Structure formats: C-alpha cells, structure tokens
Amino acid sequence: MKRFVQILAVALVVAACGTKEPEVKYVFYFIGDGMGINHVVGTEQYNAATGMGPDSINFNHFPVRNYISTFSLTSLVTDSAAAGTALATGFKTYDGAVGMDQDKHPVPNLAEMAKAAGCGVAVMSSVGVNHATPSCFLAHAEKRNLYGNLAEQLCDSQADFIAGACFMTGRKPEHPREYYENMAQEKGYAIFRGPDVSAAGFADGKVICLSGKQDLQLPYAIDRQEDDTSLKDFVSAGIAYMERHYLDKGFFMMVEGGEIDYAGHSNDAVACFRELTDMAYCVDLALEFQARHPETLIVVTADHETGGLMLSSGGYVIHPERLAWQKYSIDRTTELFREAFFPEGKPYKAPSWEQVKSFLAEHFGLWENVEVPQKEEENLKKVYAETFGKGGDRNLSVKNLYTENYKMVSEAILCLDRIAGYQWSHPDHSGSPVGLYVKGAADDRFNTVKDNAQIAPIIAELAGY
Known about the structure:
There is one protein chain. This protein has a nine-stranded mixed β-sheet, with helices on both faces. The protein has a two-stranded antiparallel sheet with strand order 9-12. The chain has a two-stranded antiparallel ribbon with strand order 10-11. It folds into two domains: 2-309 and 427-463, Alkaline Phosphatase, subunit A (3-Layer(aba) Sandwich); 320-420, no CATH class. Helices cover 38% and strands 13% of the residues. The relative contact order is 0.19. The protein is an alpha/beta fold and 465 residues long. The protein starts with a helix and ends with a helix. It contains 15 helices and 13 strands.
C-alpha cells in the first residue's frame, strides 16, 4: 500500500507541475468486453441486413482507428482482470490480478487519479458491479474471484456514480448480496433500482444503480422487456449526474459492455451483435455530450477478443439476413426449451424429432425460413438422439465460463450461424488484437498506440490527472 501511495503522489505532483491547462476535461472510456474487430464488422453486417440497428457502428468510423495487443504478463491470451488492469492503470500484470502489478502491489487507476484531481468519477457495467473490469477501476486484489473483498472496497470507494446488474458473491458466498447493498448505504451511497435509475441523475450524494432484477447480468438486448434496465439507462443517468455536479471540474466515466463477452463465450452471434449495438447506443450519448462540450475525449476499446469469431464458414458468401430469424439469446431459448420439453412438476415424456424440429423452426427459422443443409440436419438429429435417446432425458448441456445451456439449443445456434456465414473457433478468449477507436480533444495522441497498457497514461496526461 505504501508503494501505491507513492506512485499516486508522484502522479499528482506531475499533474500539478504542468505548465498548461489539461487538453481534456471530460473522459468517456468504453470497454467492450470480449469485443474483437470481427465482432464490430459482423455487427455492421447484421444490422445492415436485418435493420436491427444502425448499419454503421459509430465508433468504427472515429477519426482514430487502430488495433492493439492485449497479452498479459503470464499469457499471450489474457483474462479480463489482467487486461482490465492494463487498461485502467497502464501496468501489465498476471492473469487474475485486479489493480495489482506483477509483484502484487496496488497500482493507481484512472478513476482514483481523476478523483484525486478533483474530478467526478463514474464506473458502470452491464454485468456485476464488482466483476473484473469495473473492479479494476474501483479496487485492488490479488485474485479477481474475491468478490466479497472487491464489494467491500467498492463500498469504500470514492467513486460518485457506480452502476451494474448486482453485487456478485461467487459460488460459496460469505454474505448475500443484500449485505453489500446495506454496507454501501452505510458508507453513504444511495441505491437506485430498475425503473428508478433515471432519478439517480438528480441525486445529491454518491449513487449506486442496480438492475431491478436479481440476475447476475442485465437482460440481453435481444431479450429485453419494456420495463428492463439497460446499459443506456445507466449511462444516461450517469451523464445527467455528472453534468449536474461536475461540469465545472470535469469527470471520468468508464462504461463496460460486459455482455458482449458473455455472448461470445456462448458462441451466440446474434446476442453478441445486439449487445455491441447496445453499447454503440451508449456511445451516441457520449457523442451528444461531446457536441455540447468540445473538450471531451471518447475512447472505445476492448480487453480481449472472445470466441475467435470468423466472418466466413467456408466459401465466399455471407448471409447475415438469415440471422434475423433468431428470436432470443441462447440463455432465454434454453429456458423456453426446458419449459417445452421438461416442464416442472409433470412426468417426463420424450418429444419426437418433429416436435423438437418445430421448436427450432419457431425460434431460429430453420427449415421454414432458412434452408438447412443435409449435413447440418443430420448433426442436429444426432444431438436430438443423444438428448432424448434410450433411457429418457439425458439433459445434455454445454457449459462455458458463465452459463450452461442445452446442447440442442447450442447446436441450433451454431448451425444458424454457420448457415449465415459466421463461425466460432471456441468458447474462450483469444490472443487476437482488438480495436482502439478515439474521437475528441487531442485524439491524434492515440495514433501510435499499439498495446492496451499505453492507453491509460495518455488519458491521465491529457486530462491532467
């Protein structure tokens, strides 16, 4: 901790000794978790073909467009904590570290430096408030899965505005979520939930915004109902709060599109593209603010790529319009599949192939609206036989880092993706470079950035942190 204080003190002295006013007063830092370059291009293709969003993703056309490496000190394929630490502090570290250097010493992050410089600070995500990426801007820990410790540090944080789906507690929690919510209130945070989030923009003290539901993530954009909380709700309230309290002093705002990564781990292209579009809507809000305040800097990047998405499944044609027939995310479709074929409280009866086929046609357009090659149908029949063969329900599932879904549903989504021309390499992170997109005051300073650890020092210098 002593070393952390020394580093922070040096940073403040350097800022104080500056001979000119900071070039940047307001910073928006968007991190698309798991968002590879192909995810961005694929989203534009999907939106253009289906009308589900803008066919031109705003940040993909920023004046500065670059690509950067994401490796950690322990692996060429980073985890979110090590990458988040690099993005937040400028320090490369080992996988699993939150705001720690390779020797397990805390290092100051942009949010802490901004607050020490008298600026407002907002940190928000579409997943848990103490998940890896937001925690890299709010806490310090040797391991990312110390959710209780990270939650306690969040409650002691000086951040003005924090938003996310919930407090995460892990598989064997020491305390329930309510424990940390109460702790936050005792530490001076007012908590706003669901439909009340918009009122957080007019609060006087420190604020934490949470989903109106007790889920580990906000509902996927493709599954969202009218009364569900969205990442855009958080950002809108956060900007209103900052304009009200810190327009004169300046502010730093980090926004994570966390569910791009979740969809990538599930190899669900449609959910991934819809999540990326959802983050682009949040960037629109930052662009509107920038139009009013030219001294604004908008930085968009990713911590890593997830899934090894390929913009071709063979041949030289892509048909993104075929993805329009997918109604829900893999998670929601799994729930509907369970309700249809494994209803709770009713005796199990194996469905026929025609019944399962009808379900897949209804939810993915297979056969009815999208022609299914014989090889793909044979593969789906094989999974059907494995799931509902002799001995009854085998409940075959596919697990990834965050969710578990029926293999029948997973295979149907992979089948639709391949028919449309999109293919996944695996359900994990990759070492592929990710994009860096910058617009606003002094954006040309990022033209030569080649690695994720180079971003935070430039932001700190430009903003006078």
